[in-house]
Amino acid sequence: MNQLLSALRAAGESTRLRILAALRQGELTVSELTQVLDQSQPRVSRHLKLLCDSGLLERHQEGAWVLHRLSDQPGIHDIVTGLINLIDFEDPELSRDQRKLNDIRKEKAKLAADYFSQHAEEWDSMRVSMVSDTDIENRLIEIFSGSSIDLFLDLGTGTGRILEIVAPYIRKGIGFDLSREMLSVARSNLDNANISNCTVRHSDISNINLDDRCADAIAIHQVLHYCDTPEEVIREATRLLKPGGEIVIVDFLPHDIELLREKHAHQRLGFAKESICHWLERNGFSLINHEALDANPEDDTQAELKVGLWHGRLQSQ
């Protein structure tokens, strides 16, 4: 009862309801919320503190950024969901907030697209300077070579490298990417490697034009840290996979290298093991394995970087 009353008191104010509405689509920084709400940072911070103290929101530090999200904690999550379901998103003020939020996301997507456009040709060498691919690629081969895969999907395929390494073990593979420059490089790489069972397509990886339950396996390799709403990509993988289908996510574990955000378009400075495990479980996956790997043990400048690998199986629905 006390928890419910505290949550209702915290939510019972127009700005705080607008904050809950804005966060229903994913995490936001204080700066982004001030843009959406058109209010001063101190005022927005006071509202956020009240919402966090009530348990409705969770706050976490990521490098120089502080991100806020709706609570996933048992009990309070049901209260958050109930409040969100009562909000009228056709309200003019909330519609304006949504337009501002869409503008923020478009600008972030444009910055990422510009970055990939500029670096498509040298992308593999840049990635290898941050991440030692050998161990990761060997693990992917171990996982996917042991399965019977009719259709394999690579979400955020980039230069098509993952398709290259799994091609011998699948009947058909399709890679998706939003950068046309990256796709041009990927097509060239697949042609040069004489790979005929894999193709690439232009698509937003959170909204792919394929039928439900069409794929046997999905890889999301070093992609989620570029995404504004990473769980949307996992949710799309759930839609695309057959029951019993496998997913492998490879991405950085938490770090504090702000340079990757400032110069390399990273939206997130890695992910805690528990965060991706929770997203997988919430979207119907059982975790088969999680492991941590050094990103590039030969490069002392990247000593803080470690890479996580999450391997899950979609449960029968």
Give a short overview:
With 317 residues, the chain is of the alpha/beta class. It has helices at residues 2-11, 14-23, 30-37, 41-54, 76-86, 92-119, 123-130, 133-145, 161-166, 180-192, 230-240, 258-264, 273-282, and strands at residues 28-29, 57-62, 65-70, 149-155, 170-177, 198-202, 215-221, 241-252, 285-294, 306-314. It folds into two domains: 2-118, Winged helix-like DNA-binding domain superfamily/Winged helix DNA-binding domain (Arc Repressor Mutant, subunit A), CATH 1.10.10; 123-314, 3-Layer(aba) Sandwich (Rossmann fold).
Task: Describe the overall structure.
The longest helix has 28 residues, at 92-119. The chain has 13 helices and 10 strands. The model has no long low-confidence stretch (mean pLDDT 86). The protein has helices spanning 2-11, 14-23, 30-37, 41-54, 76-86, 92-119, 123-130, 133-145, 161-166, 180-192, 230-240, 258-264, 273-282; strands at 28-29, 57-62, 65-70, 149-155, 170-177, 198-202, 215-221, 241-252, 285-294, 306-314. It is globular. The chain has 317 residues and is α/β, with parallel strands linked by helices. Strand 5, helix 10 (180-192) and strand 6 (198-202) form a beta-alpha-beta unit. The chain folds into 2 domains: 2-118, Orthogonal Bundle (Arc Repressor Mutant, subunit A), CATH 1.10.10.10; 123-314, Vaccinia Virus protein VP39 (Rossmann fold, 3-Layer(aba) Sandwich).
Which CATH class of the largest domain?
A: Alpha Beta
The CATH homologous superfamily of the largest domain corresponds to: Vaccinia Virus protein VP39
Backbone shape: globular
Biggest pleated-sheet summary: 7 strands, mixed
Our estimate of the beta-strand percent is 15-25%
How many structural units, i.e. domains? 2
- The CATH topology of the largest domain is given as Rossmann fold
Mean pLDDT: 86
In CATH, the architecture of the largest domain is 3-Layer(aba) Sandwich
What level of helicity do the residues show? 40-55%
Tally of separate helices: 13
Which spans of ≥5 residues are poorly predicted at pLDDT below 50?
A: none
Task: Note the gap between the termini.
Answer: 34 Å
Which strand order does the major sheet show?
6-5-4-7-8-10-9
